[in-house]
Design goal:
Layout (H helix, E strand, L loop, with lengths): L2 E8 L3 H12 L4 E4 L16 E2 L10 H20 L3 E2 L3 E5 L5 H13 L6 E3 L1 H7 L7 E5 L3 E3 L1 H14 L3 E3 L4 E7 L2 E6 L5 E10 L5 H7 E2 L10 E10 L8 E4 L10 E3 L5 E3 L4 E3 L11 H9 L10 E11 L11 E3 L1 H4 L4 E5 L5 H19 L2
Helix pairs in contact: 1-5, 1-9, 2-9
């Protein structure tokens, strides 16, 4: 006998937890189904922990809109809830004259997206802010920051649970079907169960396409293929020479290895970008030489032996090799025809920054269906 549930959120990463929080705050009875033994163990735990300003994303895209909205909301939320963060700022630099057009393109796109606090820097200003960085031009993004992503997820979960939500770990969704009574989910784990839900939000990250394919009644044509894009991070031994995050303009052959400083003051470089056939977090140390080459383009003082393997993360891409990344894909019944179902695909960067705004966006989609 299937148990009746008001609302199930599949996936307890930062996006799923934000959605669950928003739905619970709105009075919904929410169960969060997480396949792993802890929340936030994949994309949410393996990233740069950067609060992005909203600079790069295409005009009018969900990424652009939700990043700018989410960044403002996130700073306010962190201050209110005591989530550790720091508005450290970011310097975006052109390392040679060929990158000046790319730098201008970034700044123009940022202004279109509503990022209105960027400041162009002279060479002397750049040298003053980042004396270790060699560049010919750049600008400062003062709204870029860093955050404790685990602390943020704890805060989201706490808010959700305080409003009646519950988190169920080790509970993978293994199947299901769209029925007249609601959306039936088959949930595995130590104690398998069958539940029928009025509302299901599929925020399973890398697993979201597979979850949708397992639920009979969701049109296969609306479900994208999942691809696995890995990024490596190296850490710098010793004290960081940088005062801000540093992002070089991307080159065609190399996306640019960023400087990130975490809340403990540790400096890390990354991510790079390559493809894998499956969810595989193994660290490929053969990429070290390319890191040294890329970093020394703007930080020539990097000494041999100063880089140590850090960690890897994988982007839940829905476009493959040779194709540009696409926008967040958030589908409700208007796309797939299933009332009560919202599917989220390709929730890569800036998903963390956008998480509060994504929660509100999805809650709005759900609310419109229940009017």
């Amino acid at each position: 006998m299937a148990e009746n549930i008001d609302c199930a959120v599949i996936g307890a990463g930062v996006v799923g937890l934000s959605i669950a929080r928003e739905l619970a705050l709105g009075g919904r009875e929410v169960v969060i189904l997480e396949a792993e033994s802890a929340f936030g163990t994949h994309t949410s735990a393996r990233n740069s922990e950067v609060i992005h300003a909203g600079i790069y994303y295409p005009t009018g895209s969900l990424k652009a809109r939700l990043c700018v909205e989410g960044r403002k909301a996130l700073y306010a939320y962190c201050a209110e809830r005591g989530v550790n963060h720091r508005r450290i700022g970011k310097v975006i630099v052109a390392t040679d004259e060929t990158q000046l057009a790319g730098l201008k393109k970034y700044k123009d796109q940022a202004e279109i997206n509503g990022v209105d606090d960027l400041r162009m820097l002279s060479r002397d200003e750049l040298a003053g802010l980042e004396p270790a960085v060699v560049s010919v031009a750049g600008f400062l993004s003062p709204s870029t920051g860093i955050i404790d992503s685990h602390g943020l997820m704890l805060a989201y979960l706490g808010d959700a649970e305080n409003h009646g939500a519950s988190l169920v770990l080790n509970s993978p969704v293994t199947g299901g079907a769209v029925t007249d009574q609601g959306i039936r989910l088959e949930v595995g784990g130590a104690e398998p169960m069958s539940i029928v839900c009025k509302t299901v939000v599929n925020a399973a990250g890398h697993g979201a396409p597979a979850v949708s394919r397992a639920i009979a009644g969701i049109p296969p044509a609306t479900i994208p293929t999942n691809y696995y894009a890995i990024g490596h991070y190296y850490t710098l031994t010793g004290k960081t020479p940088f005062n801000h995050l540093v992002y070089p303009v991307a080159r065609q052959d190399w996306l640019g290895v960023h400087v990130t400083i975490d809340l403990g003051g540790r400096c890390k470089f990354g991510p790079d970008f390559s493809w894998r056939d499956s969810l595989d977090y193994r660290f490929d140390e053969s990429r070290e030489a390319r890191f040294y080459e890329a970093i020394r383009r703007y930080y020539p003082g990097l000494k041999d032996g100063a880089l140590q393997p850090g960690y890897t993360g994988m982007r839940p891409r829905i476009t493959g090799q040779g194709k540009d990344a696409v926008d967040f894909v958030i589908q409700d019944h208007a796309v797939h025809g299933v009332h009560g179902m919202v599917n989220l695909y390709g929730m890569e960067s800036p998903g963390l920054t956008s998480s509060l705004a994504i929660g509100r966006y999805v809650s709005g989609l759900v609310a419109r269906e229940h009017r």
